[in-house]
């Protein structure tokens, strides 16, 4: 690690993040081909794209599960961090200045929603897939859930990309998710309560 | 002597970290799964009560609310030079119509709502086309023909309607949609429209209509969907 830098994200955390990101973008691309008439005409092989999207989704959830199992105790500790909100977090969420830990309260909520959405994408996706073959798995609202998740996730993703790529105060955090470390003084400014190991 | 009970001094509330994360996680998952049972009703309610919302949102949605389903590798391509609509089966006079001949038949316009069995709906679609009777009449269907088979250019997609279903007042063959020639993805040059039934009965890319003795399973019905695909009371809905 470079002098003056502290480690923010472990290899397991980064792997989990990037496996999730890669899977999400792949599923977004193939899903949009199924969803947008203009794109479905360009590609036209709906059956093939549908299979790629479905099995891509299975692979995405499978890969996430593997990383979680391999990450074991280390990721469990991360989950505990995300689970915990103290008074400063609640103040921060109300828009006040409050010292934050390794994750600020917004990052915690984003991570929690992303995890919950992965499960809901999986459930609604399986229902869409099996519902096409068997009416017992069909609900009138499955497609609304699946599409709604896509729209909310897209909204979260745009905010996430703005904060990591554009916003000057926060874009340094991208280094934490790629190389693992961030500048010590940046960490102190943004995550005052975090005591890096 | 009795002393008044000592009230303990309340210390300032300590900063007790709370496990809110799991609650948010479980509530999101539970809310999402339960929405399988109320999502569509809620969405219909929102868009129905505030109909300007539906009208404002629909054009913003990249699809206009439509989703395009195909069952084969390639979307059929309409060639005006070679395309014909064949009326055959149990008829006295098999008929074959070119695109121009079809367009020359008496034109009807109607506004109807399109429901897909998977849950999405497109309200107030403006269709232009012809009534089924004007296409079938010249072919003189025989009395023993009690159903129609609609054959798509997208092989092997076929579907059936009983004569009774086909004679509902708003069944039509549409070659125009919202004022424009029917786009390729919606079944160019002509598709069946039966608003009372789910979209899978509304066969796209029509190339033939055969009069047959009785209705049997079409493409999706072989995969478990109801043959009588009434909107709101088939395929497990409204039962």
Spans of chain A of at least 5 consecutive residues whose pLDDT stays below 50 are none
**Radius of gyration of chain B in whole Å, from Cα?**
27 Å
Class based on secondary structure composition and strand pairing of chain A: mainly alpha
The count of β-strands of chain A is 3
CATH-defined superfamily of chain A: Transmembrane di-heme cytochromes, Chain C
The main pleated sheet of chain A reads as: 2 strands, antiparallel
What's the structural domain tally of chain A?
1
> Would you identify the regions of chain B where 5 or more consecutive residues have pLDDT less than 50?
none
Query: What's the CATH architecture of the largest domain in chain B?
Result: Alpha-Beta Complex
**Number of separate helices of chain A:** 8
Number of domains of chain B: 2
CATH architecture annotation of chain A: Up-down Bundle
Question: Which band does the percent of strand residues of chain B land in?
Answer: 25-35%
CATH class category of chain A: Mainly Alpha
Description:
The complex is a heterodimer of chains A (197) and B (239). Chain A contains 8 helices and 3 strands, in the order βαααβααααβα. With 197 residues, chain A is mainly alpha-helical. Chain A has a single domain, classed as Up-down Bundle (Fumarate Reductase Cytochrome B subunit). A two-stranded antiparallel sheet of chain A has the order 1-3. In chain A, helix 1 (11-35) crosses helix 2 (37-43), helix 1 (11-35) packs antiparallel against helix 3 (46-83) and helix 5 (105-131) packs antiparallel against helix 6 (142-166). The radius of gyration of chain A is 19 Å and the shape is elongated. Chain B is an alpha+beta fold and 239 residues long. Chain B has 2 domains: 20-59, no CATH class; 76-223, Sulfite Oxidase, Chain A, domain 2 (Alpha-Beta Complex). Helices cover 23% and strands 25% of the residues of chain B. Chain B has helices spanning 20-49, 51-60, 99-104, 132-136, 163-166; strands at residues 18-19, 84-89, 95-98, 108-115, 121-131, 147-152, 158-162, 172-177, 180-181, 191-193, 206-212. In chain B, the strands form 2 sheets. A 5-stranded mixed beta sheet of chain B has the order 3-2-11-6-7. In chain B, strands 4, 5, 8, 9 and 10 form a 5-stranded antiparallel beta sheet that branches. In chain B, helix 1 (20-49) crosses helix 2. The longest helix of chain B is centred in the N-terminal third of the chain and has 30 residues, at 20-49. Chain B is elongated. Chain B starts with 17 loop residues before the first strand and ends in a 27-residue tail after the last strand. In chain B, 33% of the residues are buried. The model of chain B has no long low-confidence stretch (mean pLDDT 87). Chains A and B meet through helix 2, helix 3, strand 2, helix 5 and helix 6 of A and strand 1 and helix 1 of B.
């Amino acid at each position: 690690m470079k002098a003056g830098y502290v480690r923010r994200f472990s290899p397991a955390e980064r792997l989990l993040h990037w496996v999730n990101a890669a899977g999400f973008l792949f599923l977004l691309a193939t899903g949009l081909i199924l969803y947008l008439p203009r794109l479905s005409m360009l590609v036209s092989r709906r059956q093939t794209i549908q299979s790629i999207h479905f099995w891509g989704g299975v692979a995405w959830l499978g890969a996430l599960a593997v990383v979680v199992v391999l990450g074991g105790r280390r990721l469990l500790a991360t989950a505990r961090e995300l689970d915990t909100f103290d008074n400063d977090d609640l103040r921060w969420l109300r828009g006040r200045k409050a010292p934050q830990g390794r994750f600020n309260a917004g990052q915690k909520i984003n991570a929690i929603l992303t995890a919950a959405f992965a499960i809901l994408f999986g459930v609604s996706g399986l229902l869409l897939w099996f519902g096409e073959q068997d009416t017992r798995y069909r609900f009138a609202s499955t497609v609304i859930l699946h599409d709604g998740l896509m729209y909310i996730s897209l909204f979260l993703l745009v905010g996430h990309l703005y904060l990591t790529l554009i916003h000057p105060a926060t874009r340094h955090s991208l280094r934490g998710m790629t190389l693992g470390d961030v500048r010590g003084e940046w960490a102190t400014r943004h995550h005052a309560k975090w005591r890096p190991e | 002597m009795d002393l008044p009970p000592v009230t303990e001094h309340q210390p300032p509330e300590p900063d007790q970290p709370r496990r809110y994360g799991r609650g948010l996680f479980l509530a999101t998952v539970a809310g999402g799964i339960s929405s399988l049972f109320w999502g569509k009703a809620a969405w219909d309610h929102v868009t129905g009560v505030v109909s300007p919302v539906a009208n404002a949102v629909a054009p913003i949605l990249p699809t206009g609310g439509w989703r395009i389903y195909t069952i084969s590798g390639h979307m059929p391509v309409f060639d005006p030079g070679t395309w014909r609509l064949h009326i055959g089966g149990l008829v006295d006079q098999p008929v074959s119509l070119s695109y121009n001949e079809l367009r020359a038949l008496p034109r009807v316009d109607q506004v109807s709502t399109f429901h897909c069995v998977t849950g999405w709906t497109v309200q107030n679609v403006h269709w232009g086309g012809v009534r089924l009777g004007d296409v079938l009449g010249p072919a003189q269907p025989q009395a023993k023909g009690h159903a129609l088979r609609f054959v798509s250019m997208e092989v092997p997609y076929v579907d059936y309607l009983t004569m009774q279903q086909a004679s509902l007042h708003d069944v039509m063959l549409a070659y125009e949609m919202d004022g424009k020639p029917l786009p390729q993805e919606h079944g160019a040059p002509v598709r069946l429209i039966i608003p009372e039934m789910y979209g899978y009965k509304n066969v796209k890319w029509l190339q033939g209509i055969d009069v047959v003795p009785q209705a049997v399973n079409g493409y999706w019905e072989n995969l478990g969907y109801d043959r009588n695909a009434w909107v709101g009371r088939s395929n497990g809905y409204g039962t």
